[in-house]
């Protein structure tokens, strides 16, 4: 899947991301109050572009952007590929209208990548797992996710061994189920995982001799 989809972000969103990156770096490192004022103006312009093209009010976008502080870097999203007798574990997302996805979420500070995915799977499904292999490291922009994200995201997919546990809902999910490959729901949370990614991840899981997908 390396580069298969091409960059899907609209041009205006790429402008916004680049301007935010420049502005946040400047606000982090600039010492002159005049320079800081100019960088804040750049950030306000990026916010206005995002608000205009996304048909969202300025204050809402500014609130979203203000959550990011310091030098702008991609966020890290970890996802677990958990198999039981060839069936894939999926969770039903509360925040996305009950659509299905691989269990996972943002990596937390002080977690290693494998600790992050093991924790996310446990919290969202009730199953304890051990992450054993990196299957793919993707740039979200390149793999058909919708809608576009307002910041960069790297997605790490880990093959996980099921250890123990029982399916249970969480504050983020309404439940977890194992699906045969031909039973994967059509109603996927496309911001989190795509049908093409699931197909590729299952293929990678079946071939331990293959290297991880990158980009």
From the structure above, extract its key features.
about 220 residues; alpha+beta; Nucleoside Triphosphate Pyrophosphohydrolase; 2 domains; eight-stranded mixed sheet; disordered N terminus
Explain this structure to me?
- This protein has two domains: 11-66; 75-214, Nucleoside Triphosphate Pyrophosphohydrolase.
- Helices cover 34% and strands 27% of the residues.
- The protein is built from five helices and eight strands.
- Strands 1, 2, 3, 4, 5, 6, 7 and 8 form an eight-stranded mixed beta sheet that branches.
- β1 (75-84) and β2 (87-93) form a beta hairpin.
- α2 packs across α3 (58-66).
- The longest helix has 22 residues, at 33-54.
Order of helices and strands: HHHEEEEHEEEHE
Number of helices: 5
CATH class of the largest domain: Alpha Beta
Report helical residue fraction. 25-40%
**How many beta-strand elements?**
8
Anisotropy-based shape: elongated
How many domains in all? 2
The overall average pLDDT, rounded, is 91
Main structural class? alpha+beta
Low-pLDDT residue spans: 1-5
What is the CATH superfamily classification of the largest domain?
Answer: Nucleoside Triphosphate Pyrophosphohydrolase
**Which fold does the CATH topology of the largest domain refer to?**
Nucleoside Triphosphate Pyrophosphohydrolase
């Amino acid at each position: 899947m390396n580069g298969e989809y091409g960059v899907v972000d609209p041009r205006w969103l790429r402008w916004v991301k680049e301007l935010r990156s420049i502005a946040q770096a400047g606000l982090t490192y600039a010492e002159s109050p005049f320079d800081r004022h100019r960088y804040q103006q750049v950030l306000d312009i990026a916010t206005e572009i995002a608000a205009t093209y996304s048909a969202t009010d300025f204050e809402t976008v500014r609130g979203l952007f203000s959550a990011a502080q310091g030098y702008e870097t991609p966020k890290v999203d970890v996802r677990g590929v958990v198999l039981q007798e060839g069936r894939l574990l999926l969770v039903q997302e509360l925040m996305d209208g009950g659509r299905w996805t691989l269990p996972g979420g943002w990596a937390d500070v002080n977690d290693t990548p494998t600790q992050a995915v093991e924790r996310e799977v446990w919290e969202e499904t009730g199953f304890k797992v051990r992450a054993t292999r990196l299957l793919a490291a993707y740039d979200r922009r390149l793999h058909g996710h919708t809608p576009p994200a307002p910041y960069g995201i790297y997605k790490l997919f880990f093959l996980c061994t099921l250890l123990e546990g029982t399916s249970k809902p969480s504050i983020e999910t309404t439940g977890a189920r194992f699906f045969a490959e031909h039973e994967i729901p059509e109603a996927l949370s496309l911001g989190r995982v795509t049908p093409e990614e699931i197909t590729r991840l299952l293929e990678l899981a079946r071939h331990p001799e293959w290297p991880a997908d990158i980009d």
